[in-house]
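Dear support,

I submitted the protein below through the web form. The confirmation email said the job was done, but the results page showed an empty box. After a refresh the structure appeared. I'm attaching both so you can tell me whether what I see now is the final result or a partial one.
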Amino acid sequence: MPETGRVPTTLCPCGSGLPYADCCGRLHDGTATAATAEQLMRSRYSAFAVGDPAYLLRTWHSSTRPGAIDLDPRIRWIGLEVLRTTGGGLLATVGTVEFRAHSVVDRAAGTQHEESRFVREDGQWRYLDGDPLD
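What the results page shows now:
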């Protein structure tokens, strides 16, 4: 679990309707791994929402992973819409997820619309890269 003090005690930020501890919290603390590309994408959104850059780095593909991530503490992630998934299932090796992530920065609403690509690396789903759509 990240030690930012921002971990939600109620519902998971990914929008599953489950408590954080029973959803993305299990992936963030390492007790579970993502079974699908969409689950990984949702858990990465939640990592942004709770301020867990270590999880983001762990789940980034080695060929595109940056050396470090600095999260902007002013950004408050307030909602996620998964618009479309292609591939990325239990037995797949590649997948894409199109999503919109909603945020607030200094009282201004923002949206990130992206199609993210995921691949398996060493048997685990990893974020490869993404294309902005708006």
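Response: this is the final, complete result; the empty box was a page-load delay. DSSP finds three helices and four strands in the chain.
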